[in-house]
Input
Amino acid sequence: MALDGQRDAFFVLIIISLVSDLVDGPIARWFGQVTRLGAKLDTVADGCTVLAAILGLYLFEGETLRPELPWLYLFLASYGAAAVTSLSKFGVLPAYHLYLSKTAAFCAGAFFIWLYLIDYSRPFFLAVVSLGVLANLESLLVTLRLKRFRSDVASLFYLRVHERDGDG
Output
């Protein structure tokens, strides 16, 4: 939709994608349908949503966001570092579903709704990007901390507590 210049359809689809990402895990757990493949597919879908969102932002809001490109590059670098580290260590993308990552996705959805319905807000954008960078750094730290791959790690703090208890 972004490449075709359909701004309304793009924003609606990105918002649906972000909302569905927040609810698909709880729905799978509710119905007992949690699988390793589902966690991996969720991670791939997350990556596609992130890339589509950034592409759409660039295409539709490029002039407005031009001064913010260094922040987007920082986000992409942290996202890439977390992905490459997990791929090199475990052979898979990080599928931790961290609380901070979920919070970042929720805030990104709120930003897209705000951008679409109201207008661009630099403080809101910078807060969302900062939260995304922090979530990516937490994912990177979880990868470095784990001895073997696991999905559904709530947070780095959760991992540390369970390591002390002998569960890590």
